[in-house]
Amino acid sequence: MSELTPSQTVGPYYAYGLTPEGRKKWKPDEKLYRWKETTGDNLVTADATGERIRIEGIIYDGDGKPIDDAMLEIWQADAQGRYADPRNGKPIPNSSFKGHGRSATDASGLFAFDTIKPGQVPGPGGRMQAPHIVFAIFSRGMLRQVYTRLYFPDEVANAADPVLALVPADRRPTLIATRSERGGQKVYRFDIRVQGDDETVFFEI
Amino acid sequence: MSLIYPKESLSAFPKHLSPGYKSTVKRSPSKPLILMPHTLSELTGPVYGHDAIQDGDNDLTRQHAGEPLGERIIVHGHVLDEDRRPVPDSLVELWQANACGRYVHIVDQHPAPLDPNFTGAGRTVTDKNGYYKFITIKPGAYPWGNHHNAWRPNHIHFSVFGPSFLSRLVTQMYFPGDPLFPFDPIFNSVTDEKARNRMIATFDMENTVPDWALCYRFDIVVRGREKTPEDID
């Protein structure tokens, strides 16, 4: 039997602790209450190389209503396909790029990240994975986080990605962002549906 | 990369759908989760070292002009992996209601006073022994809208990183002997009694500071254990 400390919901009030400078408004008094941010929704550092991108989306519940109190965390490699984890054992080219971010959803259920498009990383059996970003989603009404992955459209490597291959073909589109341009910047739209017919694929890991 | 993360260990966690906690009904996946192997993307994770925090971030009683009202307590313990080895350099964040059971959040409309000397957020990083320590005040119980006369037991929210993005844990620490335990669907979403009890801190008389503060110990066990020869790839 496992000895893990069980997970519990992040609840509706996490914002002042975990995303105090994020898009979720929480302050009952601007002057009295404040807290510093550990990590926010802008992952771009001065020394980060690669293509700057924006990721945004709305997260919906099983009734199609936006979830206005979710917290999304992302974890990704840098543009060279290297994770900023010392246990990864590789030199880090973008020494201050952490590859980790947090975004609270606002009243319309919108989350967003400014980041760098990740490179390819190795997968099972030495096969390369297509560029992707791991999402962990926390919310009131979620007793434990759910994990999903964002993949990029028009990416040749998607066809050979060992994780996408595990997903039934008709559900794969839920994992692939759509691309647009705004003011010269690439914006990837990644809506998440927690429950229902067009439910986003979540992974048991 | 010698740590492995057995999925069986997750049996200690609540199910995504736990209808007694009403918000899970529309916020839990309805389709089966897709099983996948752990790749480098899951086996690595962000590292927040001691540069991520400042002196005093772990003392919630000294963030304002005066001291907060309420019962001053020490909350300390170790972050451990499934082999019960310490997890060093792990970011631990917490947030909680004030002594009256009110959160500093505009969404919280419980008619109990805010405390101008208490925000209720803290953070620290575990030392080489996986040890962490906070000074705070004991949070109050508060009502919520889940069902008629629903009250949350006193609790402190914890967020912990651990050795990888798989070991990421958000949980709640409860206080021993709380009379609200039998009535709380969030606490009871953990159906195994032993697992549930691992969310309850122990009163730590030995580390109580005379004439100053009571003490509670809360060890947090996150996913990850050493790979052994019996583990087949």
Core attributes:
heterodimer, A: 205 residues, Protocatechuate 3,4-Dioxygenase, subunit A, five-stranded mixed beta sheet, 10 strands, globular, B: 233 residues, mainly beta, four-stranded antiparallel beta sheet, 2 helices, 14 strands
Our count of helices of chain A gives 1
Element-by-element helix/strand order of chain A: HEEEEEEEEEE
Largest sheet of chain A: 5 strands, mixed
Instruction: Give the rounded overall mean pLDDT of chain B.
Output: 96
CATH superfamily of chain B: Aromatic compound dioxygenase
Structural class of chain B: mainly beta
Helix content class of chain A: under 10%
Largest sheet of chain B: 5 strands, mixed
Unreliable stretches of chain B: none
The number of distinct β-strands of chain B equals: 14
- Average pLDDT of chain A: 94
Q: Please indicate the percent range of residues of chain A in DSSP E strands (runs of 2 or more).
A: 25-35%
